[in-house]
Amino acid sequence: MRYLSEWRHQRLGNHWEEGKLYCDGKRVDLFDVRPCFNTETWFSVTLDEFMDCPDNMATNRQTRMIADLTKSDCYRRRGFKPAKRAYLQLESAIQNLQTLPFFGITEKRTETQHFFEKTFGMKFKSSLEVFNDSEEEELISEDEFINMMRFVELDIHLYLYANDLFQHRLEQL
Q1: Full-model pTM
Q2: How far apart are the C-alpha atoms of 76 and 144, rounded to whole Å?
Q3: N- to C-terminal Cα distance for the chain?
Q4: Could you tell me which residues come within 8 angstroms of residue 125 by beta carbon, excluding any fewer than 6 positions away?
Q5: How far apart are CA 8 and CA 43, in angstroms?
Q6: Which of 28, 88, 109, 163 could serve as 72's disulfide partner, Cβ 3.0–4.6 Å?
C-alpha cells in the first residue's frame, strides 16, 4: 500500500522537506502545509506518529496527485470544510482519470501491458510480469491497519473506480 511505502521511504531518510508545493501557479504557504517532524532523519518515527501528523502528504496522495486541486482551493486551510474538500478532490480525480488515454493497475500487469500496447501502438521488449515490487514487508497491527484506512479513504474510492474503468476499457479493446 502506498501509505505504508511512503512511511518506510521517509524513515530511510528520503523525505520531502526540500520539495516545494505549488498549486494554481503559486507556491503553497507554510501556514497551509506544515512539516510533520523537525528532525534530521525520521528513522525513529513510528507508524502511529506518522499518522498523527495533520499535514501528512501521504494522506490520500494518489487522489491529490490526479485531482485538479484548484477546484478544492488548493491546500488552503480556510475555505472548504474537510468533507467538502475531500469530495471535490475525489470528484476531480475521477474526472481526470476518465480523460487519460492510458493508466495501469499494478496488480494487473499483463492487462496493463496489453492496454498500453493497444493504446499507443507499441510493443514492450519484455513482459511487465518479470518486474517484481516485492520488498521485505514490516508487519503492522490490525489496529494500525484500521487507523491507517482513515488516511487513504479517498485513494481506496479512487482505486475501486479506476479498477472498474480499467476493466471496462479492456473489454472495449
Answers
A1: 0.84
A2: 29
A3: 29
A4: none
A5: 9
A6: 88
Summarised one tens digit per residue, pLDDT across range 100-147 is: 999 999 899 999 999 999 999 999 888 877 655 555 566 889 999 999
Alpha-carbon distance of 110 to 113, in angstroms, equals 5
pLDDT digits (tens, 9 = 90+) for 15-27: 555 667 888 998 8
Mapped onto helix, strand or coil, the DSSP state of residue 170 is helix
| Rounded alpha-carbon distances, angstroms, from residue 151 to 6, 155, 157, 162 | 12, 9, 12, 19
53-112 confidence digits (pLDDT tens):
888 889 999 999 999 999 999 988 777 888 999 999 999 999 999 999 999 998 999 999
Overall residue count recorded for the chain in this entry: 173
In the chain, the amino acid numbered 72 is S
Range 142-157 average pLDDT: 94
How far apart are the C-alpha atoms of 154 and 62, rounded to whole Å?
9
Beta-carbon contacts of 167 under 8 Å, excluding residues fewer than 6 positions away, are: none
Nearest to 11 by CA among 47, 53, 54, 56: 47
Q: Is 153 helix (H, G, I), strand (E, B) or coil?
A: helix
Residue 13 pLDDT greater than 70, yes or no: no
